[in-house]
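Q: Got one fold?
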Amino acid sequence: MAELKNDRYLRALLKQPVDMTPVWMMRQAGRYLPEYKATRAQAGDFMSLCKNHELACEVTLQPLRRYELDAAILFSDILTVPDAMGLGLYFEAGEGPRFERPTDTIDAIKKLSIPDPEDELGYVMKAVSTIRRELNGQVPLIGFSGSPWTLATYMVEGGSSKTFEKIKKMAYAEPAALHMLLDKLADSVTLYLNAQVANGAQSLMIFDSWGGALSHTAYREFSLRYMQKIVDGLTRFADGRQVPVTLFTKGGGLWLEAMAETGCDALGLDWTVDIADARRRVGHKVALQGNMDPSMLYAPIPRIEEEVGQILAGYGEGTGHVFNLGHGIHQHVDPEHAGAFIKAVHAQSKQYHK
């Protein structure tokens, strides 16, 4: 493997000194870029793009050609794992992801098998190894998965949900069934992420998109407990260096201390959290990633630069901060505004790393 030319992102996650704050964006390879839209049209549809390792590599690299980002993230989807479990994933126009066979009974859960990441998810591993090769040491490659709770919400509901009625009913009326599902998912995700590391991923991120829908106690029981199980089972050293792990619960600002106790290296913050407060609470234990509101990228460029300055000042001096948005970049953002955001982070952050 080529030697890493820019390891700023990995160093910040491990709270090692850096010359400036590293930056990348969730969904940086995506619908806001015209070149992405062209590649997706070439693939035919979203899942065909995910399953073609050469095209998945192409869209992963597209934002790096435009911007001086400090990391690449594998182009894939969090629902690859449930799809590999045989649920029949498809995408409906305007409706988002749907499953032909929802996992909403204990009998359906019992029948689920844990997918072999090199077999049923081999297309993801081929994408990881291709991207790692093509990056040629330019920046590190982030691998990722959805959290067990988040994957379970789609599997039980049969797709996206605003109320989470079916899975919450299962959580409170049939908790043993949900725990069985979450346990299988935790095992599947651990294997999946470790296979990504074996194929070249240099950092890992777990997206708990829907953990914030849970009550205070239910979050610990149904979400955090299973992310903890994954963290305990991950490969944390490869290619002669540590493989940092970031946990991100959208709407998880209440639980930062508990998340930091899992042994992860970093926590992702959404835009509702004050980064200065988050650093006071957990910054001695973990690095922090975030957390500008993605909608700020619609603002005039001087306002974007001002917001970047405020967040950098909120975190303050020293390492342990990876700048990011508080969630994925919106599809209608002007790519020039994204570029101005990235430049502002690098330019304004040097003063905090003397």
